């Protein structure tokens, strides 16, 4: 199991001494499975230097970029299921809407490149994503789900730049990332959260990616959510 970190500094210290990156697909089984998770979509045109970094990194073997149309900031994984369950997905949307009904739009800053054991990421700074996770935890969002609730103390919100398709040497990745450790990639205004269904079977990892629905922040005390047509 990959190590977990409570600070970005811990993550970098670990990678600074690592000989290899671990395989992202190896976290998941061969069998069909779907991850339901809450993301903040980040438009590629808003972060052109992230796209440039992807191009540099993916010149290295076995590093795969997140598609530019799917750049995102992680907020909270909900669960993994064998097959899609539309009724459950609607319930998860409604529960999140209620949990976030008083939350207003907020800004996040994307600054600093880091490496988790299986992925190169940009650090996310700002209290908004953590506050959204806390609201879900406070309302018992994971009660009754076949998935352990995230541990707030070791959940670092991040924008994934590229994943390791298999185990690969860390040295070349470290050399590139060290040159960008202090880079700043801009500020993003967050108004919408997306519940996404993503295949995580090794045979078709991350494809096709489906947005189940969205919760809009700042729509009054009742909040607002919108399912996405299939």
Q: What features would you describe in this structure?
A:
The protein has 230 residues and is an alpha+beta fold. It has one domain (8-225): Cyclic Phosphodiesterase, Chain: A, CATH 3.90.1140.10. It has helices at 8-16, 48-57, 86-99, 128-138, 171-178, and strands spanning 20-21, 34-41, 63-65, 72-81, 106-116, 119-125, 158-164, 168-169, 184-190, 192-199, 210-216, 224-227. The protein has a 5-stranded antiparallel β-sheet with strand order 4-2-10-11-12. A 5-stranded antiparallel β-sheet has the order 3-7-6-5-9. β5 and β6 form a beta hairpin. The mean pLDDT is 90.
Itemize the secondary structure elements and their pairings.
Layout: H1 8-16, E1 20-21, E2 34-41, H2 48-57, E3 63-65, E4 72-81, H3 86-99, E5 106-116, E6 119-125, H4 128-138, E7 158-164, E8 168-169, H5 171-178, E9 184-190, E10 192-199, E11 210-216, E12 224-227
Antiparallel strand pairs: 1-8, 2-4, 2-10, 3-7, 5-6, 5-9, 6-7, 10-11, 11-12
List descriptors.
230 residues, globular, alpha+beta, 23% helix, five-stranded antiparallel sheet, Cyclic Phosphodiesterase, Chain: A
